[in-house]
Amino acid sequence: MHAIATEADVVVIGSGASGLTAALTAAEGGAKVIVFEKQSEPGGTSINFEGIFAVESDMQRAQFIDYSRDDAFKSIMEYNHWKANPRLVRNIVNESAETISWLERQGVEFTGVTINMPKSPRTYHVVAGTGLAVVKVLVSNAKEKGVDLQMGTPVTKILKKDGRITGVLAEGDTDNIRVNAKAVVIASGGFANNRQWIKKYTGFELEKNLFPVGNTDKFGDGIRMAWEVGAAEEGIGVMELYRAGPITAEIGGQVEWPTVQPDIWVDPRGERFCDESIAFYDTSVGNMNAKFKEGYSYSIFDSSILERLKQHGLDKNVNVRTPPGSRLTNFDKEIEILFEKGNTDVFVADSIGELAVKMEVDPGVLKSTVDEYNGFCEKKHDDLFAKDPRYLRPLKGPKFYAVKAHTVFLGTMGGIKINHNTEVIDKNETVIPGLYAAGFDAGGMYGDSYHISVASGSSSGFAVNSGRIAGKSILNYIKTV
């Protein structure tokens, strides 16, 4: 940590995609900006994303993709049953194409526009090098514009006087340091690691029936500080949920590949619970899995399904690097390593009955489930959940496998109420002058779920666009104070 200036136009709390875009946008407009980050390195969860939502971008137009801003707005609002903030959604959608162009001007490279699931609009602008590359570009350019990045320096309090935000207290080497500022942007990334808040606001037990992925030290500091100066609450219980396993392997490892395919899934009691072709839609899968208090379900497959994955490849992609058609090449080696490490999530047996015993479910229930499913496969019709016949593949053996697929999440997605300009709103629906929130700290973009199927890439898209909107809003605001 180097010396901290005691005066600034703007203080940004957090150095993920939302904080960095806000800081750089404000700095481009001539503002003096300080970014405080409590971690030793910038980026947070933003280093992991692979693509960014946008509509009507130059890349889309070049490929005759005609999904419009109106289409996106209507789809997002309908998906959320109009529980989202419509003016905020509209502003994010409208800003998205220009933000892609702005990122390109900064030096971010995109490899193309794609989708992550069938029958969905092509809104996913894939970045070269993942979010880490984006963070590096933004950090470099922010420094060139004079932004002061203070790593390993948490903000402890937001200051307010006569109804306006006046600065922050930051943790110094020996005592808190006061930094006077005209505006503060909260972009600290949510509360994914806060055990008490997760229990209070979502009902889950962290690390027991809900597992965070890619989050470190996210305790809701920014949300708490906003509430302390009068901010209203919105979207506090929304999470970016999905289903993954085994939890003991790195997410994306090849043991996970057959786990996420649309074959037979069973609940903790050994019964099917859904049309498994929802596998293509992470939010649906996450919401479905979250219904089980145990925090997991099982994916069941056999030697014939593994052979198919080795010969013909995946139906459901795992990430951008492993799209449909990617072939299973390392499963056998990885599963051996898991067992050597004392795995408790993967089970292998020579019969369904033996598999059930290892899974600790009733053998009669699991056998009945598999027999019924195999019957559906034989007649090419799922009488129970009407799954597409192309994904009805029977379990024949000789080896049978089960993997625990846990309820996991990439982050919390709300907490602070904002308006369409990302200005923080108090409990009387009045703007708190000088206070802004962006990214995972801000509510209003979602209803009760992440709308991945109609706006793929919109969590990263919301981060960069809300940050850009905050930066531009601040430039207008600081002219008046």
Brief account:
The protein has helices at residues 17-28, 58-62, 69-79, 86-106, 130-144, 195-202, 221-228, 256-259, 282-289, 303-311, 331-340, 352-359, 363-379, 458-478; strands at residues 7-13, 33-37, 51-53, 110-114, 124-127, 148-151, 155-161, 164-171, 176-186, 211-212, 233-234, 239-244, 264-266, 296-302, 346-349, 400-412, 415-416, 423-425, 431-437. By secondary structure, it is an alpha/beta fold. The strands form four sheets. Strands 1, 2, 6, 7, 8, 9, 18 and 19 form an eight-stranded mixed sheet that branches. Strands 10, 12, 13, 14, 15 and 16 form a six-stranded mixed sheet that branches.
Structural overview:
This protein is of the alpha/beta class. The two termini are 30 Å apart. The strands form 4 sheets. Strands 1, 2, 6, 7, 8, 9, 18 and 19 form an 8-stranded mixed beta sheet that branches. The chain has helices at residues 17-28, 58-62, 69-79, 86-106, 130-144, 195-202, 221-228, 256-259, 282-289, 303-311, 331-340, 352-359, 363-379, 458-478; strands at 7-13, 33-37, 51-53, 110-114, 124-127, 148-151, 155-161, 164-171, 176-186, 211-212, 233-234, 239-244, 264-266, 296-302, 346-349, 400-412, 415-416, 423-425, 431-437. It is built from 14 helices and 19 strands.
Features of the shown structure:
single chain; 481 residues; alpha/beta; eight-stranded mixed β-sheet; six-stranded mixed β-sheet; 14 helices; 19 strands
Q: How do the helices and strands line up, and which of them pair or pack?
A:
Blueprint: E1 7-13, H1 17-28, E2 33-37, E3 51-53, H2 58-62, H3 69-79, H4 86-106, E4 110-114, E5 124-127, H5 130-144, E6 148-151, E7 155-161, E8 164-171, E9 176-186, H6 195-202, E10 211-212, H7 221-228, E11 233-234, E12 239-244, H8 256-259, E13 264-266, H9 282-289, E14 296-302, H10 303-311, H11 331-340, E15 346-349, H12 352-359, H13 363-379, E16 400-412, E17 415-416, E18 423-425, E19 431-437, H14 458-478
Parallel strand pairs: 1-2, 1-9, 2-6, 9-19, 10-16
Antiparallel strand pairs: 3-5, 4-5, 7-8, 8-9, 11-17, 12-16, 13-14, 14-16, 15-16, 18-19
Helix pairs in contact: 1-5, 1-14, 3-4, 4-14, 12-13
